[in-house]
Amino acid sequence: MSKTATLVINGEKYDFPVVEGTENEIAIDIKTLRTSTGGVTTLDPGYKNTGSCESAITFLNGEKGILRYRGYAIEELAEKADFLEVAYLLIFGELPDAEELAKFHSDIKEHSHVDEDVKKILDGFPKSAHPMGVLSSLTSALIAFNPSSVNVDSPEEMYLAIVRMMGKFPVLTAWAHRKRAGLPLDYGDNTLGYVDNFLKMMFKKPDGEYNSNPILVEALDKLLILHADHEQNCSTSTVRIVGSSHAGLFASLSAGISALWGPLHGGANQAVIEMLEAIKEDGGDTKKYMAKAKDKSDPFRLMGFGHRVYKNFDPRARIIKASADDVLQDLGIDDPVLDIAKGLEREALEDSYFVNRKLYPNVDFYSGIIYRAMGIPVEMFTAMFALGRLPGWIAQWREMRLRKEPIGRPRQIYIGETHRPFKDIEYR
Ligand code: SDX
Questions:
Q1: Looking at ligand 1, which residue's alpha carbon is closest to its atom 5?
Q2: How many CB atoms lie within 10 A of CB 302?
């Protein structure tokens, strides 16, 4: 592999180093492009061809449908690890031993209290507020209650900010649900495991006992692992760029939550169920919705299909599809929407429009079916994605800070008016 790339601009040759990663990905290092060419930049809307950083956290190969966290295959982690182990792996780089895992969980539990005054902020929201808007606001509000977690320069301050967020975010997520459901806001039961405790915070009725359901705990644990990180996706890139100004972990995460909310990103899991429900109401007419998805004059897209990177099956979709079958069977639920989803997938995978564009089901296509079977309201689906993605966002933010990455500040190509004199109002 040549170690340099040569660019010819107006007859001038410019050499740039070629960098190669541990998975043999190569990139042209253009750090000196503007200075060496007198101001030439690159143009790449949506950064489809642009690497923003070097990272050691997650590797994915979109053509082969490969996803690994710190070198471990997602299939193995989903099968053999639990969510806190994976969170530790993503954030600190290695799978924890029993003592490290116990301390991580103990530190998280110790910092899981959310100040009672945060409930007053939540009180200000209407019941109809979307949970993602509530979560982004409350995550940012936590800054005021944890000022020492804003400028985290020492490893100790950074660790404290991390375990505070890992402890408090599930509480905020459960509160966002309970606010909409008109249920009292309470705290978790730290005698339970991380995911079991979250489910108890979500579903415990004021007057009733909460009985853990191992099927739901295992299913949610797996879903959170599958959502935990995905290299430089839209919301992770948002967390990194906000963090690059040293705005602190909580502010960076609040921005990431807002980015994830979009229906083209994490909001797709909610949009998928709404789409499948519409198809069901329409008598299961999948062909009508396939036609809409292919009609360029129609803004409708087949939600849960396609991906910026995966041009093959999203490995997470495969695992979630299998898990959906198991969970519904274990719970004795027959959800016609699952059959519609499978029918839609079959049709799309045989349709040249989707095949030619390499559009396959992504992580969001089946996840909502499991969330629904668990009794999680559809408006909470994207919040569940955020709960899973939290350790990935934290890991990426920590890596960016430890590598002392520069503040993110892309350039542009200006296409507006050239210089012109001011025009007094009477002459406009
Ligand atoms: C996530 O990046 C990540 O890693 C994200 C994520 C993560 O874990 O963080 O994996 C999570 O966000 C998954 C994606 C969830 N979004 C959806 O399911 C929404 C539906 N999908 C699309 O909107 C779309 O596929 C994107 C946004 C996911 C990807 O869009 P791209 O890469 O910008 O692709 P594109 O819009 O350029 O589409 C290429 C072609 C276009 O047609 P042509 O102009 O070539 O004729 O494919 C078409 C698009 O119109 N197309 C679709 C489609 N997705 C792409 N047509 C119909 N239905 C779709 N879903």
A1: 233
A2: 24
Which residues, including other chains, have CB under 8 Å from residue 160's CB and lie 6 or more apart?
111, 148, 149, 152
Alpha helices by DSSP H, listed for 204-267, are 214-226, 234-243, 249-261
What is the rounded distance in angstroms from the CA atom of residue 406 to the CA atom of residue 246?
10
Q: How far is the CA of 59 from the centre of ligand 1 (A)?
A: 20
* Backbone phi, psi, residue 50, to 5°: -120, 125
Query: Which residues does 390 contact at the CB level (< 8 Å), separation at least 6?
Result: 87, 165, 166, 169, 253
Out of 265, 276, 354, give the residue to mutate to test ligand 1, the one with the largest number of ligand atoms within 8 Å of its CB.
265
Query: Which phi-psi region, left, alpha or beta, contains residue 15 (left: φ > 0; alpha: ψ -120 to 50)?
Result: beta
The rounded distance, in Å, linking the Cα atoms of 168 and 114 is: 6
Alpha-carbon distance values, 73 to 271, 295, 328, 361 (Å): 28, 37, 26, 19
**Ligand 1 centre and the CA of 264: distance in Å?**
7
Residue 392: how many other CB atoms lie within 10 Å: 26
The phi, psi pair for 131, rounded to 5°, reads -55, -30
Q: Report how far residue 260's alpha carbon sits from residue 382's, in angstroms, rounded to the nearest whole number.
A: 8
Using CA positions, which residue lies closest to atom 52 of ligand 1? 301
Q: Which letter does DSSP use for residue 62 in this model?
A: T
**How many angstroms separate the alpha carbon of residue 348 from the centre of ligand 1?**
14
The preferred substitution site among 308, 316, 355, 360 for testing ligand 1, maximizing ligand atoms within 8 Å of CB, is: 308
| Size of the chain, expressed as the number of residues it contains | 428
**Distance (Å, rounded) from C-alpha 425 to C-alpha 12?**
47
Distance 3 CA to ligand 1 centre (A): 33
Does the Cβ of 113 fall within 6 Å of ligand 1?
Answer: no
CA distance 303 to 282: 17
**Half-sphere exposure at residue 316, Cβ-oriented, CA atoms within 13 angstroms:** 27
- The CA distance from 291 to 271, in Å, is 18
Atom index in ligand 1 nearest the CA of residue 357 equals 47
pLDDT at 314: 93
Catalytic residues: 307, 364
**Spans of the chain, pLDDT less than 70:** 1
